[in-house]
């Protein structure tokens, strides 16, 4: 959009509303100044008409007898050129019908309006109250129900490449010699896959391609790996030792793939155990 500086730019909602309020305030201020100028001019003329009323006979005589009545009126009654012209623009029959109460009544109303306008223009608080009142009146007269809901935005989170991965069914296969691979789908005959000479099937676990697979070794430690980093099941896989650093003599005994809030019972050969979620077990 084009801002107050006249230059196009991309702005957020707060910037747009802030600039609009500056524009609105300036517009209202110019409108009030324009009206104040009109009121002051009218008051000035009313002062001259009041002088004419209080000296009506002499004013009429000057108008009838003087070749140049305007300077004569200005000189005789101390009128300005604007006041003298306003008197001369009235027809004599209208001039004779001038009523003091009517002049003073209009004068009183305009003086009140003048004071009110000057008060608003001189006070930031009064200006803000006027803006608020006018906006509420416009909303009442022209507003309609909101067509889209306003919802509090959740805190932004940085997305990793892992978050963009599709969720596809996969089967992770582990061999007796610690070789691992990933196969697409859940209808895999894991024991029937091709293994290295002297090697064979040990374990398989089913999950999603965007879920980590957790390997639990014989010492009770767990290790999480993204399935996308594992080799395809079309080959014989790769040794886990190339991806994990196991303690000396430790072997991988189990694999897990669950949702983050899935509860697991973890137990040791000494009879101790505890319940945890898959996420806290090392899956995330």
From TrEMBL:
GO terms for biological process: chromosome segregation; DNA topological change. It catalyses: ATP-dependent breakage, passage and rejoining of double-stranded DNA. Residues 1-164 form the Topo IIA-type catalytic domain. Its EC number is 5.6.2.2. Gene3D superfamilies: DNA gyrase/topoisomerase IV, subunit A, C-terminal, Topoisomerase, domain 3. Residues 142-162 are annotated as: Disordered. GO terms for molecular function: ATP binding; DNA binding; DNA topoisomerase type II (double strand cut, ATP-hydrolyzing) activity. Keywords: Cell membrane, DNA-binding, Isomerase, Membrane, Topoisomerase. It comes from the Bacteria. The keyword Repeat does not apply. Residues 143-162 have a biased composition (Basic and acidic residues). One of its GO terms (cellular component) is DNA topoisomerase type II (double strand cut, ATP-hydrolyzing) complex. InterPro entries: Gyrase/topoIV_suA_C, Topo_IIA-like_dom_sf, Topo_IIA_A_a_sf, Topo_IIA_dom_A, Type_II_DNA_Topoisomerases. The keyword Signal does not apply. Transmembrane segments: none annotated. This is DNA topoisomerase (ATP-hydrolyzing). It comes from Escherichia coli.
């Amino acid at each position: 959009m084009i801002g107050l500086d006249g230059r196009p730019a991309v702005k957020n909602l707060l910037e747009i509303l802030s600039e609009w309020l500056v524009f609105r305030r300036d517009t209202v201020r110019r409108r009030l100044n324009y009206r104040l100028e009109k009121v002051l001019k009218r008051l000035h003329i009313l002062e001259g008409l009041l002088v004419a009323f209080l000296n009506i006979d002499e004013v009429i005589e000057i108008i009838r007898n003087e070749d140049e009545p305007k300077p004569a009126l200005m000189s005789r009654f101390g009128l300005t050129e604007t006041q003298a012209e306003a008197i001369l623009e009235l027809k004599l029959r209208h001039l004779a019908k001038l009523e003091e109460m009517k002049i003073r009544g209009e004068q009183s109303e305009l003086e009140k309006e003048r004071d009110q306008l000057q008060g608003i223009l001189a006070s930031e608080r009064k200006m803000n109250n006027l803006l608020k009142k006018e906006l509420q009146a416009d909303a009442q007269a022209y507003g309609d129900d909101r067509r889209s809901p306003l919802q509090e935005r959740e805190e932004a989170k940085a997305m990793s490449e892992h978050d963009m991965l599709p969720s596809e069914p996969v089967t992770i296969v582990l061999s007796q010699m610690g070789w691992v691979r990933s196969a697409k789908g859940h209808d895999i005959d894991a024991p029937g896959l091709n293994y290295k000479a002297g090697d064979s099937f040990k374990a398989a676990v089913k999950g999603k391609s965007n879920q980590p697979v957790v390997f639990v070794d014989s010492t009770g430690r767990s290790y999480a790996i993204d399935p996308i980093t594992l080799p395809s099941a079309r080959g014989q896989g790769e040794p886990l030792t190339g991806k994990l650093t196991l303690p000396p003599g430790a072997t991988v005994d189990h694999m897990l793939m669950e949702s983050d809030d899935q509860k697991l019972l973890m137990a040791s050969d000494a009879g101790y155990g505890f319940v945890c979620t898959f996420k806290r077990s090392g899956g995330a």
